[in-house]
Automatic annotation (TrEMBL):
One of its GO terms (biological process) is fatty acid beta-oxidation. Signal peptide: none annotated. In the N-terminal section; belongs to the enoyl-CoA hydratase/isomerase family. Keywords: Fatty acid metabolism, Isomerase, Lipid degradation, Lipid metabolism, Lyase, Multifunctional enzyme, NAD, Oxidoreductase, Peroxisome. Its main location: other. This is 3-hydroxyacyl-CoA dehydrogenase.
Length: 694
């Protein structure tokens, strides 16, 4: 096994190199040898200074997340950093790639930090339901000041090298030759004879810090925590750095970390971290499958979805040929795209030049022939099978032989669409979520004939355009929307039997959802569901009546709620309450108070159950894929890990018992417990780690 920590010399400078692929995580197999090496160098009088660097593509990207939840192995990262910080000789961290979490904390244990110009530095622990647990909340404020430290740690967002330099997080940046520059920097420091001050002893940014301003900012950030504990703990720990002596603040940080790391929320968010990466490992698409090159994408349709998809590709640097039926629709679409970029410029998240560069990547056309040079074509036309089949038969005629042909359908049968071409192996679904230039989730719908290299290609494209891909199989609604239907199936009965839209939605927001189902319908537009139901010969008592009154939701100022003067804030409407009461009376339903627990078991339990059925049918390869879909596409609270992880927290036997009770009452299939759920419960196995043969 290769050495994870080695020493080389450049005269009186000792260079310590960590080599622990793929991201130099600070696993135990790194910490122990590093401790020994530092101990040796500290006592070696021939060493005047130390440079700490990493092999491979990045400086240390954090503690080893896989080690959490297992018995701790000393030395832990704090011990190693304390040793490093106690060395009196100048110590210099040479940072390339992404110095994140424990990696940045390790660098903060050095006297100095030099970053390659392309490096990024951050403390993303909050995204794992944690806080920096190796001194980051106590050292970072001493370099950049409490306000900047609070923002970096609560957001978890990394900063580029130039921003790190401006905020004194790093002492220098390096255009090239980072390693040589770091050695020269260390040599100068050693030769200067000036004592190097460890970060722990730098108090200028702390003394006299404006605590009131800090508390005000922390209170603002706390409003966005939405039930997550980690952001609050992060803020508390940074505050301790201001109000407590260093070692007390460090001890308090450890206490907060220990509480979080063993909590359900961090376990849930760590589950999602690995789940997102597992989702890109697709059965029968191994690393030996080489992806095709995508130089240009073609998007058919410049409406809300098509325009958003086109922006997603352009944002990933992929030129887009944008096709619409006529010049007027095309100009409308381009104007919407331009407006979206202008909003980003006004917010400061995009420069004028970058906006111009992106607009230049669009090649608008009304001529199908112009799609002939595209390597990947995505249609976002009207959600109707006949229309889509016509589009694909046209594409079959004009697209180049190696082109990938993708449909953005939300529900329709991708195999049937593929059958309208002579190349079903090149056809698949790319189900984006609106707004497609913002929402992370991309459901990649694998047709029965879709070729492995086509899948490998779109998985790579998903990463390039900043999407979180999950490969799913063909069924009505695939994974996300099929489970959404199950979640909604009994919702109207809750209204008829006694709950108000506001009461149901309040249970959802209390659970951690951004909004409840009825507010969501109003935002999406009730007319969409109405059209789908009519097409499938289905009815929904309340929603149909609302639509018949032209109450389509926010777009008409009225839906399940009222929206005054164009506001998006839902206001309970007595007319709707009356409509519900009348509908209940017509059906002889005696209305009653419905408690939160019943609302959860009649909406979220069927949703979990549908997920288990999806796994049984092989429509999703693993339960954690479903958790990635729901946390990235539908706002399932990350602190609960997704529907599958949350089901384990609830307890499968309890869910099954309630489903059976509901099934007995209603006979509804959504309440019929899936065989998989019952088998796992009987075997005492978790649902969230289930891997099928999908
Ligand atoms: N621990 C363990 N494995 C990790 C890891 C980590 N910190 N980071 C990445 N991996 C694995 C990952 O699962 C994948 O494995 C492979 O490396 C490539 O990752 C005490 C408590 C660095 C930006 O949160 O953000 O330090 O799937 O596919 O797209 O205060 O990895 O190949 O088997 O993501 O190039 C804090 C997490 C930890 C950073 C690279 N650090 N990592 O992205 O590759 S907690 C983080 C990332 C901590 C201390 C606290 C990204 C990346 P496999 P990848 P990438």
């Amino acid at each position: 096994m290769t050495e994870t920590v080695t020493i080389t010399r450049d005269g009186e400078i000792a260079i310590v190199t960590i080599d622990n692929p793929p991201v130099n995580a600070m696993s135990f197999r790194v910490r122990e040898p590093l401790r020994k090496v530092l101990e040796t160098l500290a006592g070696d009088s021939s060493v005047a200074a130390i440079v700490l660097t990493c092999a491979g593509r990045t400086f240390v990207a954090g503690a080893d997340i896989a080690e959490f939840g297992r018995p701790a192995q000393r030395p832990d990262l704090r011990d190693v950093i304390a040793m490093l910080e106690a060395i009196r000789k100048p110590t210099v961290a040479a940072i390339h790639g992404t110095a994140l979490g424990g990696g940045l904390e390790l660098a903060l244990g050095c006297h100095f930090r030099i970053a390659d110009k392309g490096a990024k530095l951050g403390l993303p622990e909050v995204k794992l339901g944690l806080l920096p647990g190796a001194g980051g909340t106590v050292r970072l404020p001493r370099l950049v000041g409490p306000a900047k430290a609070l923002k970096m740690i609560v957001s978890g967002a990394p900063v580029p090298a130039d921003v790190a330099l401006a905020s004194a997080l790093v002492d220098a940046t390096s255009e090239s030759n980072l390693f040589a520059n770091a050695v020269a920097f260390a040599r100068d420091k050693a030769a200067s004879g000036v004592a190097s001050v460890p970060v722990r002893d730098r108090g200028a940014q702390i003394v006299g810090a404006d605590l009131a301003a800090f508390d005000a900012e922390a209170a603002e950030l706390a409003k966005k925590a939405r039930g997550l504990e980690a952001p609050l703990a992060c803020a508390q720990s940074v505050r301790n750095a201001i109000t407590l002596p260093f070692d007390e603040a460090l001890a308090a940080e450890r206490e907060l970390f220990t509480k979080l790391v063993s909590g359900d929320q961090s376990r849930a968010q760590r589950h999602l971290f690995f789940a997102e990466r597992e989702a890109t490992k697709v059965p029968r698409v191994g690393k030996e499958v080489s992806p095709l090159e995508i130089r240009r994408a073609g998007i058919i349709g410049a409406g809300t979805m098509g325009g958003g998809i086109a922006m997603a590709f352009v944002n990933g640097g992929i030129p887009v040929t944008l096709l619409e039926m006529n010049r007027e629709a095309l100009d409308r679409g381009l104007a919407m795209i331009e407006k979206n970029y202008a909003i980003s410029v006004s917010r400061g998240s995009l420069s004028e030049d970058a906006k111009a560069g992106r607009m230049a990547l669009f090649a608008p056309t009304t001529d199908y022939a112009d799609l002939a040079e595209c390597d990947l074509i995505v249609e976002a036309v009207f959600e109707d099978m006949a229309v889509k089949r016509e589009v694909f038969s046209k594409l079959d005629a004009i697209a180049k032989p190696t082109a990938i042909l993708a449909t953005n359908t939300s529900y329709l049968d991708v195999n049937e669409i593929a059958a309208s071409t002579s190349r079903p192996q090149d056809v698949l679904g790319l189900h984006f979520f609106s707004p497609a230039n913002v929402m992370k989730l991309l459901e990649i719908v694998r047709g029965s004939r879709t070729a492995p290299d086509v899948l490998a290609t779109v998985l790579g494209v998903a990463k390039r355009i900043g999407k979180v891909p999950v490969v799913v199989g063909v069924c009505h609604g695939f994974v996300g929307n099929r489970m959404l239907s199950a979640r909604s199936d009994d919702a109207e009965n809750l209204l008829l039997e006694g709950a108000s839209p506001g009461e149901v939605d309040k249970v959802f927001t209390g659970f951690g959802w951004p909004m409840g189902p009825f507010q969501m319908y109003d935002m999406a537009g009730l007319d969409i569901g109405w059209r789908n139901r009519k097409a499938r010969g289905q009815t929904a008592v309340i929603a149909d009546r609302l639509c018949e009154q032209g109450r389509f939701g926010q777009k008409t100022g009225k839906g399940f709620y009222r929206y005054e003067n164009g506001s998006r804030t839902p206001v309970p409407d007595p007319e709707v309450a009356q409509l519900i009461e009348d509908s209940a009376r017509e059906r002889g339903i005696e209305r009653r108070t419905i408690l939160a627990g019943e609302i959860i078991e009649r909406t979220l339990y069927p949703m979990v159950n549908e997920g288990a059925k999806i796994l049984e049918e092989g429509i999703a390869a693993r339960a954690s894929d479903i958790d990635i879909i729901w946390t990235n596409g539908y706002g399932f609270p990350v602190g609960k890990g997704g529907p599958m992880f949350w089901a384990d927290l609830e307890g499968l036997p309890k869910i099954i018992e309630r489903l059976e009770y509901r099934h007995g009452l209603s006979g509804k299939d959504v309440f019929r417990p899936s065989a998989l759920l019952k088998r796992l419960a009987a075997e005492g196995r978790p649902l969230s780690t289930f891997v099928g043969n999908g």
